[in-house]
Write a structure and sequence with these properties.
126 residues, mainly beta, Metal Binding Protein, Guanine Nucleotide Exchange Factor, Chain A, seven-stranded antiparallel sheet, three-stranded antiparallel sheet
Length: 126
Amino acid sequence: MSDLSSAKHQHTSDPADPRISIEPCTRTARAIFNDETVAESDAALVLNERGYQPRVYFPMHDVRMDLLTSTDRSTHCPYKGDASYWTVLVGGEQIENAVWAYRQPIEDVAAIKDHLSFADTIQTDA
């Protein structure tokens, strides 16, 4: 069973709970696209946000940045900050804007600085 499906990672909808919580992933986390490991880390973080599925955030130094190309896309989340995006390209297949990071996250989620997360279209095991 992956960390992401365990009960401790199911964020409640209780308004008394913090909107976002971040904790270390207890297993080696991997992101795989087109049969290629794009990221692998023993230091990944799991971000739980009320109303969303848990997300794995990989330290940038554990991500194959040579397989990513930055894009012009940016989005803003009032709870995390401004996100930058990358396209992943492996073996001639690509997914645009499938990877993101909050380079200057707000203080409440500062732990995800220099970490990247992957869209659901990329297999993430943790």
